[in-house]
Specification:
alpha/beta, Purple Acid Phosphatase, chain A, domain 2, 5'-nucleotidase,  domain 2, six-stranded mixed beta sheet, globular
């Protein structure tokens, strides 16, 4: 190819010598092929643009015609005297709620099935009011993971915390809750360092044409009962549940939710109805706030369809709770006119079931069975913490399983005395005959390690007085004991006739206030808030590095030769309540 410029011409001219050689001919042939291909692509692109433009134009014309026809119909309706109004949803809002499931996981399939059935006729949502990851073998053996695996399948709309969510420690709780595809709400859990709430205080859900706010709150007594979760290795507070009075924190969240446009405000509460020293029960919170429409409560394991409490300005507010371990499913119905009604649906009466959730449950049970089915011992007697009406008598009196468990701690460590808070015994075994590892683990599911502490007799007497001072109200710190006998005068809030078993003579003798005794218990009861901190500061002289269920199983297999006899058929008269 050559190039020249002719001054006589006004343009540049390219002179191409196509006959110079075969190389130039082949080169130009390729150039012409590329130019032709490019031209064809441009033609196709132009045709596509034209087609799209035509289609868009047709759609615009059709839309304009549709709008024109709609306007004609409106004019005709006005002409005929018909009112033209924007349709308002006539569907009710239904909130299904549960509390204190405590690992009774089989109920989740029915809960999901009921939710799905109601969704055909109402705007439905699902909330949990705390205490789900701890309480039975399925939680203990996986440190909550199996329970969370199931809860993930339900697509909750709001979840709040219970005190037992902190049982495995704060970091483990965070690990578990990060997996749940649902809003975790709690208005009173604060990070002390940055002064902010750890979770959002509330979440607002649009249900039909209404906005529903769910505010979460958990009992601040967790600061004592699960104290270890809130403090660092230097015993400094790193998380707080009562930065201000709970009702102040709840009111702040209510006001924020109202400003955000909430039509209804629901308190997802894990406070309970029982009065506390921190003035944080649900009734007290309602009485000191305004703007809450209803309280879906938990913590006290009560089955309450609807208690009515007057709020700060004299307006009635309903407090409801489902009991525990899926005894019931709670159902709140908000009608289109705003009227609220609550009911409790016994789980046995629910016929609906989610096949998907049931399939996940089957998988979890298969994994669990492989780990827990081995037989440990035989029992001739039921091991009870409830009476025949289902009341938790272990929290108000001596029970046979309390005698058995504390005997294990005392005899396996060689201590003078053993004491355990009754709340650490989580389940009962009504059946007799063979008991599996899973059965025994369900009794004592926590990661509590057995220690031996030195305690003066006067401190033991003060401890017993404190731990029985709430009677007749049930208290999870009520003591179960071994090597001790005493009388409780509940009306006078005192104890008397405290006696200690002489290990040599096997006779009981009056306690010596000045003597130092060895006491076997869990580390939780000495250093981490158990037994209402009555043993805090006591010198630990032995750390067994074994969990309380390990020590219990060793006692049953080694000392009882795998046979729990009728010696434990009834409580042995160690605690007499008058």
């Amino acid at each position: 190819m050559t190039f020249f410029f002719d001054e006589k011409l006004t343009n540049q001219i390219f002179c191409v010598d196509l006959w110079r050689n075969e190389y130039n001919y082949g080169f130009m042939k390729k150039i012409l092929w590329i130019i032709g291909l490019a031209y064809m692509m441009m033609v196709c692109a132009y045709a596509e643009v034209q087609a799209r433009a035509l289609s868009s134009g047709e759609k615009k014309v059709a839309a304009a015609q549709k709008q024109k026809d709609k306007s004609k119909r409106k004019k005709q309706k006005r002409k005929d005297g018909e009112a033209v109004q924007t349709p308002v949803s006539q569907r009710s809002i239904v909130v299904l709620y549960e509390n204190d499931v405590h690992c009774e996981v089989d109920g989740y399939a029915k809960l999901a099935g009921l939710r799905d059935a109601i969704a055909d006729t109402a705007d439905v949502c699902l909330v949990s009011n705390g205490d789900y990851v701890q309480g039975q073998t399925v939680g203990a053996i996986s440190k909550g993971q199996y329970v969370v695996d199931i809860m993930k399948t339900l697509n909750y709309d709001a979840i709040t915390l219970g005190n037992h969510e902190f049982d495995y420690g704060m970091e483990r709780m965070f690990q578990l809750l990060r997996q749940v595809p649902a809003p975790i709400v709690c208005c009173n859990l604060y990070d002390v360092k940055n002064g902010r709430t750890v979770f959002a205080p509330y979440v607002i859900k649009r249900m039909g044409d209404k906005k529903v706010a769910f505010i979460g709150v958990v009992t601040p007594t967790t600061l004592e009962t699960e104290a270890y979760a809130f403090r660092d290795e230097c015993d400094s507070l790193i998380y707080d549940l009562q930065r201000e009075d709970v009702h102040v924190l709840v009111q702040r969240a209510v006001d924020e939710a109202k400003r955000a446009g909430a039509d209804y405000v629901i308190l997802d509460s894990h406070l309970g109805e029982e009065p506390t020293s921190r003035h944080s029960d649900s009734h007290t919170v309602v009485a000191n706030t305004q703007g809450i429409d209803i309280v879906l409560d938990g913590h006290s394991h009560a089955a309450i369809v609807a208690d009515t409490v007057m709020n700060k300005i004299g307006k009635p507010v309903v407090v409801t709770q489902t009991g525990t371990k899926f005894a019931n499913i709670g159902k709140l119905v908000i009608s289109p006119d705003g009227k609220m009604t609550t009911s409790l649906i016994p789980i046995e009466s629910v016929t609906e079931k989610s096949e998907y959730v049931a399939h996940v449950l089957d998988s979890i049970h298969t994994l669990l069975d492989k780990e827990t089915n081995r037989i440990i011992c035989k029992s001739d007697v039921p091991l009870r913490i409830l009476d025949n009406e289902g009341n938790e008598i272990a929290r108000t009196r001596e029970v046979n399983v309390g005698d058995l468990v504390t005997d294990a701690f005392r005899l396996m460590t060689g201590s003078d005395i053993s004491v355990l808070n009754s709340g650490s015994i989580r389940n009962e075994l009504k059946k007799t005959g063979n008991l599996s590892y899973g059965d025994l683990l369900s009794l004592l599911p926590y990661d509590n390690y057995i220690v031996v502490a030195e305690v003066k007799g006067s401190t033991i007497e003060a401890m017993l007085k404190k731990l029985t001072s709430f009677l007749p109200q049930p208290d999870g710190q009520f003591p179960q004991v071994s090597g001790l006998k005493f009388i409780v005068h509940s009306d006078e809030h005192r104890v008397s006739d405290v006696q200690v078993l002489n290990g040599v003579t096997q006779l009981y003798e009056p306690i010596n206030p000045d003597r130092t005794y060895t006491v076997a218990t869990t580390k939780y009861c000495v250093t981490d808030g158990g037994l209402h901190n009555t043993l805090k500061g006591s010198k630990i002289v032995l750390e067994t590095m074994k969990t309380y269920n390990q020590v219990f199983i060793e006692y049953v297999t080694q000392r009882l030769n795998r046979h729990i006899t009728t010696d434990y058929a009834h409580p042995q008269g160690r605690i007499i309540v008058k």
